[in-house]
Batch of 4 targets.
Target 1
Amino acid sequence: MTDSLHPSVPRSEEYLGYYENGVVRLAARTNWPNGTPVCVRVADLSPEDAARGFGKVIIAGFGLAGRWVAEIFDRHHIEYVVVDKNPETIETQRKLNRQAIQGNITEESVLRMAGIEDASVLILTIPDEDAVVQTTALARRLRPDLYILARTTHASAGLRAAQCGADEVIKAEQAVARQFYEALLRKVVAAREPATKTSVQDGVAAES
């Protein structure tokens, strides 16, 4: 039933999500209009509850980013499948009892083999930006409701991925710039602190 306060507001439903760095991220896409009111409550979920609500995840690319992502899902008992072109990587992951498929994620047959029909999330950590954009467009065509998180090196490629349907894009270029900014800002602040303390002390001494 539609909320009587606003005819365009979707009916009351529950969506699983997670809180991180001041933002609540939903595990599934919605078609809510901007300005939709929401009510957030903290759910008492066991790892098994989270796994049931999240659904299967596809991790394309198993370098450092892919492995870190897998650790999150391991901790919460969320099912995932790894897709990578490197046969040694696939062999290693299979020995660790992980679902792993060797193949090119840009190919529809590989996406289907990975279970895109039943997946709730596709994570593209592969370093090839063109492949990320291509896969995003293909996955969005196959599964309009799929949540897609993509990684690109440059902001321009990130924009293309977003235009092709990525829900979120992590741009290495921006992440590096942000880390430079934060590191240098800490350095500048630290350099100013002794001078500030000295000025305060001098002022107190002069008054006394």
Target 2
Amino acid sequence: MNRRNFLKNSLMTAATITTFAGLLIKPKRVFAAWPKESFDITDLNESIKSVYGHNNVNETSKIKLKAPDIAENGAIVPINVKSSLNNVESIMVFVENNPQPLSCGYNLTTKSQPIIGTRIKMGKTSTVMAAVKSDGKIYTASKEVKITIGGCGG
């Protein structure tokens, strides 16, 4: 057996084992399981209700929402949310004047820090709201972001 055949056979064996092992591994949770209906709702209050089952929210200073005062391009608006609340279960970002207010959502585990950073799309000047679920209650922080060039087809 020459060196070339040895390497070829070794790589083929490794690829076969890796493929077989990949078929045996099954995830415990599937993360892309958000109800599509929540993203299709066009009213802010109904969108909040579809995610949490109610729209009883409390404004708090324990959530820090960092967003630009003026975003030059609505297609890429940077958003950062940080919370000092205990037992944070999820963080959702809503944009009031978007065609679909629910922009993004994150389920967190008890071992994760309640900090997210992302970029969202905004069609026009609007209030951005970060909703944090902690101990079964919903807390929010809001900020108005002015858009000079729309990102949702505007």
Target 3
Amino acid sequence: MRVVILSSDLMDRSKLSAAWPDADFARTVARLVDLAIGADLVVVDLAKLDRFDTLVDVSSPIVGYGSHVEAERLEAAADAGIDAMPRSLFFRRLADPSGLIPFV
């Protein structure tokens, strides 16, 4: 499975790398969009996005995680077609392989 991830947080990257050792990491949205061509899954730290419409050309499923206190941001991401969830839920699911089923 080819996974592309937008995240620059080192703690997040280590957890994501443990789940998907061969994932491609992007530090910018432009690079993410380029890498997303042909990806099976795109994972996005929602704090790294200024606008959600920048991902409109990404045809792969997109999962986003963000702060639970930014409910409006999570809702806006969901409205843009991103499977958005609080980071605590995302990383809890990431730790348990059965929790990844909705993502793939």
Target 4
Amino acid sequence: MNTVDTNEQSIKTKQNRNTKSLALWTGLWMLSLATAAFGPKFLWDYHSVITICTVITNLVMGYKMIMANKQHLQDLDELQQRIHLEAMALSLGVSMVAGAMFGLLESIKLVSITPNPSSILFVMGITYMIGMVLGTRKYG
């Protein structure tokens, strides 16, 4: 086994570890977010101490998810980093434009519904996935 094969295995091992870590922390963050969102109403009748604890837990899980994402991105090769960067730029731009307009629609009386911030998360996620597919097709 030569050095190139060993290096490729080491990179793949690192990427697998980073992907598993990112999946774990993302899952824990999503679970803690759901707990913070639905727990007060359905599980503990808006008890302040429990609610504050779930909010703090969610913030810690969010921080760990961000750090896992950062590590994952740092360990990608330059082409993979480029694809992610372009997908993130697309996602940020579309989310900012759509979010700003979505927030205005109710106040300028074009819609009667109250904008929900979670809608922007869906736009962001879908746009990011589209950006990843387009980037992979462009460079892959």
